[in-house]
Structure formats: structure tokens, C-alpha cells
Amino acid sequence: MSTVLDATVVPSAYDTSGNGGRKLVQLSNGWLVAVVKDAANHDIYFKVSKDNGLTFTNLCSVQRSATINDFVIQSKGNQVFFLMSYITSHLFFGSFDATTQQDVDIYSNLTIIESSQSSMGNISLAVNETGTELHAAWASKNISYANSFNLRYAKGTINADRSVTWGVVEQVTKFNTSSSGAVNPTVLSNGGIVAQSANTSAYSIFILDKNFTSFNWINSTYSNWGNYLIYNGGSYNQSSPSAIFVPQSADGLANGRIWVAWHGSDAGEQAWQIRVSYSDDGGTTWSAMQKLTTSGNTQNNHYPSITANRNGSVFIVYGNYHADNLRKITFNGSTWGNPQTVKNLGTTNRYYYPSTLFDLSVDVTEPMFIYGDNTKVGFYGSWTVTEISVAQGDLGEKTNKDNLLTYAITTDGTMSTVTERINGVVIATKTATSEQNLSVGLTQSQWDAVRFGKYTDATGGKNTLTIEMGAKKWTYTFDKRLATDADVLSVVKAVKDSNEVQLPVIKKMLVDKVGGSNGDTFEKIIKNIALGRKSAKGEMTITTTAGVDTVISGLDFKPFAVFAKVGDQTSFVFMDDTSDYYYQYYATTNGYRQQGSSPGAIDSDSYYMTNDGFIVKGLGNSGYTAGKLMKWIAIQ
Fold first, then answer.
1. 572: left (phi over 0), alpha (psi -120 to 50) or beta
2. What is the pLDDT of residue 512?
3. What is the chain's Cα-based Rg?
4. Per-residue pLDDT, 393
5. Do residues 74 and 127 touch, judged by C-beta distance below 8 A?
6. For residues 402 and 395, what is the distance between their CA atoms, to the nearest angstrom?
7. What are the tens digits of pLDDT across the range 534-554?
8. Contact 74, 25 (CB under 8 A)
9. What is the mean pLDDT of the chain?
10. Residue 586, strand partner residues
């Protein structure tokens, strides 16, 4: 059992606020990654612990002084996904493999999900149960709904190479008065959103889901998604919900359970207290609100962060303002216990903002979380450490069925049944002791069922071996190749696999690079190579309205470079996707020359790149751009 009591993540007063979005994850290799913000400079830093939480070191950073607002983190395997928002306008997405990431500023690697908002609130990010989708929700104001914060949403598809393809941004709520709105979202792994109403006459906690057909709380005029009320506090503020979806609850409910914790006040107790409710039917009906703390009007208990373990226990970690400490409350599967003090912080450390790790694959016995006060960011937790002797990854070429992998599982907990799968099919179940060597071997019929070659399906995937024990899962890939003494039947099967899978996958990869159609012959596709990269061109009149961007989108490729010329200007603009800048060139008698000694920054000037085009920032009645015809060429 690994137990850490108040390790130092950062020895400075860094920010961990925003309890609707996670700030701590564990990777499949056991590393812990936390993200924190330098409150003075508004830069964010990713910290990694490779020794089970005892020490944390720099992993990488995003440094955009005085502009970063909120930030959240999720992971799949050893890949880290994160969202970061500016105080106004932009929402950025980034990802990296923590095992290969250098300690550098990674701002230039970010992509823009949102760029047209006038003010940004808190954000939230979740990965679905199968690890194939990301769900993002945030609160913001924009030109269409300028008087209220509203909720917006986007879904990202996690591709086989761990890149993410984002769908369109959806406007979830549509309030537009100064006395109403929706803020502090926490998005669930199934895509539902729990949020807080900013209606001053009806403060509430509610849930929205695009699959709901009822408008139980927000009128359909103000929401694109169905919704249900969780709790109505009337004129008493209810704030800062933190929510989780547990796929199967402790009592075995098939639909799982949604838990929501928040802080709020009431007529009898106007200090903030921790409250909780749950739903066992996907969010349609909710249990009666249960108040877990009480102190009359003497102590505020606030900013809860909720998590659970796979054994049915639920934990809420929160701050007690007037007693100056961090506390936790535990649900043992049937009842909530009494509040317990985790750490006394002193009278000058009153906000702390705990952020718990929520990952049911981690065998947690005490909640794992980070917090920030005015001296440091700390880490707490207690969990079982289970590791495998062979790092996950590609095993290379395999010609023998008898020994694909030799491994040992080590745990400081209890060993359980070990399951081995090839391409999702169980090939063996085993019992073993900690550190016992095990070998993956196949029968002849199991080996015959494995496809030959590097590509085994239409997506270009490889053969996959998984080792599973309890909630832990380790993944490996390999290429099945012919042995030097292969028999005729094996050779025939290899040729068949090549014709059915290998060549079509390779053809599609070639078409994606040079153009053409999957139905073309290889000869016809190869001729496209001489034509170079994909390109597109067009014309568009630049908007004259300040704050409204001119958007070029819908290209079937991400531009590598864009050339744009506006009106009768003698200069043109060039930008590429290797930097965060555009460059302006003007005509001289000796050709074109770069304007000035430095490029324009995308967050303060006119142009920036997107995944399917580019954007000209809405600068209003600028004599240089507004209302003029822009001609452009984009190159892949």
C-alpha cells in the first residue's frame, strides 16, 4: 500500500481552483501528473511523480503571462489530454505522451477549440468509459448572449494514434439577462453536464444531457439540451458542483450512479455547507439533498471535490474556511460518515481548493488529491500499487506462437485472476503470486486466427495483446510474420491477409497523402505524387464588425501554409503551422521583403490557423482589412 501524507507538488502558492475540472491523473505506467497555475503570472505547469507521489518534478508548461484562466486534465494510457482557457475568447486543447515529453513550453503545440467568446468561465473535461471520446464543457459569454454566462460543449474522438478530432461546438444554454445564466459545469464521462444556475431568484444545481427529452428545469427556449433539476435553493446560493458517474454502483444498479456534491446555504444555516445527491436512472430522478456538514452560521464548508473507488466507497474532500483545515467525508456503500480533518492549514491558508483524482482503475483506499494554499501545492493519497515488469508498447515482429511475452505482475495488494487476450479474445486465464513469471503462449488454432502483417484491420491497427488483472490493464501490439520454415498453408494465409487488409490500408494511407480515391489503381494514385500537396483557394470579404471573425473552414486537410492578400494592398500575409505567428511581406523593387523584424502574435493581431482552415480576427473598421476582399491559397 502506497500512502503519502502531504508531499510537496510545488513549493509555492500555486492555484488549484476550479473543482468542476480535474487537476490530477494517474497514467497507466503508475506516474502521477498534476497541473497547477502560477497565480502571479498565470502560467500553467505540469508536474510528474515517478515515485508514487513522494516527489514531483517539472514535466512541461504553457506560459502565456496574465492570460490563462482555467485548466483541466485527463489521461488515457500514458497520454495526457488537457484544456486551457484564456480569460477572454480562447479555449485551447493539447495532448502529449508523458513518457517522451520534454520540459519545455508546449503552447505552440496547442489547437484552438473556441475563439469567439467575450469572457470565459470555468471548464471541465472527461474521458468516456471505453477511452474513445473526450467530453468538454465550459461557461462563457459571446456576442449572441452577451449578458449571461452560458454553457457550451464539444466532443472529441480519440483516434488510434491518440490524436483527437473535435466536433462542432454546441451552445447548450441560451440565457441572456444579467440576472440569469449557467456556470461552473462539471462534465460526466457519458457526456452529461452538471452545472449551477446563476438565477438570483432560483439558485439551483441541475443536469443537462442531449439525450433527455424533458425540460424539467430550464425552459426549452433557454436550452438546446433536455434537463432535470437536482436541487433548488431558491434565494439561497448553491454553488461549485463536483460530479462523477460510477458505471455500476455499490448495490449493483445496472444504470450506475451519478453523484453530485456542492456547497450551499439555506434559511436555517446561511453559512455554506457541503451537500450531496445521487441519481440511479441516468439523471432523470434524484435523491433528496443530504446536508453532510453543519455549523450554524459560524463556519463555511466549501469547494468540494468528489471521487470514488471501485469497491463502492465515495469520498468528498473540501475546505473548512473558519477552522482553517482540509476535511473529508466518506460514504462506505450505505451511509455517510462524520467529517474528518485531513490537514490543519493555519489562519492564512483559507481557500485550498482540493482537486481529487477520479479513476476507477486505481485501487484507492483514501482519496488522492492535490490542494493549494499560500505556501505550496500538496498531495495526499493512499492506494494499492500494481505494476507489470514489461513496459507497454510494441513487441515488434513475432513468428512463434509459443512465447509472445514473458512478464510478472507485482502488487502490494491482493493478486486476482490474470486474463490474457489477443484482439479482444480471451486466450488464457491464470492465477499467480506477486512477482511470479508468466508466459503468453497460443494454441495452434489461436495462432491461426491472428492476422499476418503490420496492419490487421481497415483502420491500420496492429494485433493487440492485453494483460488484465482486476481494473488494471496493460496493452501491447505486435506484427505476426511468417517463420523461415513456414508451411504452404501459412504462406497462403499470409497472402490472403495481405490482399484483404494490408494493401487496402496502405492504399488508403497513400490516398490520404497525395489525393485520389481508394478505388483507383496504385498506378493512378502514384501519378498524383507529382502533383504535390493538396491545396485550396478562395475569396471572402472580411467582416466590418468588431469581435466577429472571418472564418475560412471546411477544408479536407489541415493547412501547412496559407498565403492571403487583402484588397489592393501591395503586401501579403504568410503563416504556417509550425509557429504561433503570421508574417507580412510588402512589395519592393527587388521583390517582397518581410515587414519589420518580428512576426505578429496570433493572440493580439489578425490571423491564426485552425484544423480545417484559418481565421481573420474581427478587428472592426480597420482601414487595412475591414470590408475588403481577401484572396487566399491554403496548402497542405
1. beta
2. 72
3. 27
4. 86
5. yes
6. 14
7. 778 888 887 777 667 778 888
8. yes
9. 85
10. 571, 593
Q: What is the pLDDT of residue 289?
A: 96
Q: Copy the grid coordinates of residue 201.
A: 431568484
Domain boundaries, the chain: 2-384, 387-526, 533-635
Which tens digits make up the pLDDT trace of 84-143? 998 888 899 999 999 999 999 999 889 999 888 899 999 999 999 888 999 999 999 999
pLDDT of 161-183, one tens digit each? Answer: 889 999 999 999 999 998 899 99
Q: Are 401 and 484 in contact (CB under 8 A)?
A: no
Alpha carbon dihedral 227, 232, 237, 241, in 10-degree steps, equals -50
Helix (H) or strand (E) holding 44: strand 43-49
Query: What are the tens digits of pLDDT across the range 49-96?
Result: 999 999 999 999 998 766 888 999 999 989 999 999 988 888 999 999
The C-alpha atoms of residue 319 and residue 315 are separated, in whole angstroms, by 14
CB 73 within 8 A of CB 97: no
- Tell me the fold of 387-526: Immunoglobulin-like (2.60.40)
Span 438-449, pLDDT tens digits: 999 999 999 988
In CATH, what number does 2-384 get?
A: 2.120.10.10
Is-contact 467 407, C-beta < 8 A?
A: yes
pLDDT number for residue 587: 60
Average pLDDT over residues 201-211: 92
Using an 8 Å Cβ cutoff, are 481 and 497 in contact? no
C-alpha to C-alpha distance for 492 and 488, rounded to whole angstroms: 6
C-alpha cell at 470: 482486476
Determine the 3-state secondary structure of 233 from DSSP. strand
Among 351, 303, 297, 306, which residue's Cα sits nearest to residue 324?
A: 351
Main-chain dihedrals φ then ψ at residue 21, nearest 5 degrees: -125, 140
Determine the Cα–Cα distance for residues 578 and 333; give it in Å rounded to an integer: 52
Q: How far is CA 340 from CA 148, 183, 293, 479, 516, in A?
A: 38, 30, 11, 53, 65
Q: Sheet containing 182-187: give its strands across.
A: 182-187, 193-197, 203-209, 226-234
Q: In what order do the strands lie in the sheet with 472-480?
A: 393-398, 472-480, 463-469, 418-422, 425-430
Does residue 350 register a pLDDT over 60?
A: no
**What element of type H or E holds 495?**
helix 488-497
Helix H or strand E segment including 588: strand 581-588
User: Which set of grid coordinates corresponds to residue 28?
Assistant: 497507466
Q: Report the share of the chain in percent with pLDDT over 70.
A: 88
Per DSSP (E only), the strands in 412-557 are: 418-422, 425-430, 437-440, 463-469, 472-480, 535-541, 550-552
